[in-house]
Amino acid sequence: MKLNQTLLATTALVLSAGAASAVDLTLVSWGGAYQNSQLKAYAEPYMAEHPDVNIIWDESSAEAVAKLRAMNEAGNITWDLVDVTVSDSIRLCDEGLAKEIDFDEALAPAPDGTPASEDFGDTLVNDCFIPQIVYSTTFGYRTDLVGDTPPTTVCDIFDLEKYPGKRSLQKRPIDNVEWALYCDGVAKEDIYEVLSTDEGQKRAFDKLGTIKDQVVWWSAGAETPQLLADGEVVMGSTFNGRLFSAIAEQHQPIAMLWDMQSYDLDGWIVPAGLSEEKEAAVMDFLKFATDTQRLADQAKYISYGPARASSAPLVGKHAELGIDMAPHMPTDPANATNPHVYDYGWWADNRDDLDAKFQAWLAQ
Q: Which residues pair with 305 in a beta bridge?
């Protein structure tokens, strides 16, 4: 009896110790082909090296600011690492909802010893944001639904006579209001000055109003490629990597429109308020996932450029298709003849106000 009790007690201790060593990390991202590139490039390799770590995915990055504000208000942070755009990272950092990072202490140096802060360079835009990729939001169109004259400028989105049919746009003001003003005759260099006035904002919404009843609004990046594949829209905006996936991997009858593609960065923030143990686990993963090789590996699965200078020479061919990835990057010279450079700071200062006005305009 005493022996059985001892064995049961020992077994319980072993099980308890095993359970205590396991770590669940909840990573928040955008789903679809982009999240799959993160899974292949560094989540799966990290878990292979650390079998005690289990990575759980949440696809709520589009709502990151609102949800982290709510978690902080409730005193219950359930996310461990969050993939966000630059403007969202600025808001989260300014509000104290994201941890400030000592980049050279927390991140791996380049293979030649260059400190991380120099290797990431200008992509380190605030103290909380750890960049991963350079990407763009641009348009795709159905090659079989545009006749013999495919669209060549972003303003063709507003031409319902030449290109009748539904088009898809992201359900937020960012990019849409810039494209609207540009296609209403505002010079690129004046867009944010015009947009800073009530008259300029009305002008943007009025232009969007000319196609409002033909727009399918999307929230997840995978929606436009699916709408195009199903023939439910003739053209639509989304992230360039999602369109690459639909064209090169799925062989859909879709082509890219690079005119006025909107450049942006995407990267990680660590939520403030994690336990000491959970934060240590997150930082170990983060150091691995943002090193030179891992960011280069991500470009094998999706056409987004790595944010580290040392990763760029390592970008080669697609992991499965064997095609050269460089011509599919938004920064390739052939694709970058007329890009729109997104103003992170302006949107960090004005996002909440424009979001509210955009939602009110949608409801009209």
A: 134
